[in-house]
Amino acid sequence: MNLAGASAIVTGGGWNIGRAVAIALARAGARVTLAARDRARLEETRQLIAGAGGEALVVPTDVTDAAACDRLVAAALERFGTVDALVNLAGGFGAGAPLDRVEPAAWIDVVSRNLIGTFLATRAALPALSGRPEAHVITCAGAGAFFPEIGSHMTAYASAKAAICRFTDQLAAELLDTAIRVNCIEPGMVWDPPTLERIAAEEQCTGHPHPDRGRNRPPEAAAELVLFLLGAGAAGLNGRLVSVNDSWWRDPAEVARVAAGDACRLRRSLP
Fold it and tell me: What pLDDT, in 10s, does the model give residues 227-242?
């Protein structure tokens, strides 16, 4: 996709990964519709984009509300005329208690913000995307989607993110006869600003790097991966799960190899 003049919706666009992706899209020439529940954070992102010469529309949205998602897409169409890409980044952690003690409402809320929000935003955007000569849906996996996280209580988040992977795989198959490609990013461990401040304070007290410092990835790494998946170099990829920690997507020969087979898909493997 030539992003110059394209219209992209970014859910979770108020901060951290969503903000980095939105800014990167705008720098590439896209007109960006920013969605999240916090208007103040969305306005901060919009101002950063405007300050760099880009164009963005703020639409406060709760992605767990189907009608709100419909209004989001309608606002993007009214302002920019088209929707060429939807990047689903709304979600977040929560329900971090052992399963027998977690509040059911908290567990369901995490699944709703991550999985149901991805479903509702994508459902709302598909009619607009289907009218474009090329269109994209990007989803977002996360911690625990592929491997257990020892020492953490995150069944809600892991379940939701694993389901998003399967959602990506299935939706790509159902849209094979369209111009819409569906792929999923795995952004790695990305500390948000408050966590970064807390970790830095701990490190100052201990005099040693945090044990997970080396695993942390900047949100700009996820933005780079999104731009790749929207670009010509990823034209053969559909229904794939791509991590910022992978290296193959930076090598055109490796990309061609992956595109020709079933690598980076959800498949049952037998011993």
Answer: 999 999 999 999 999 9
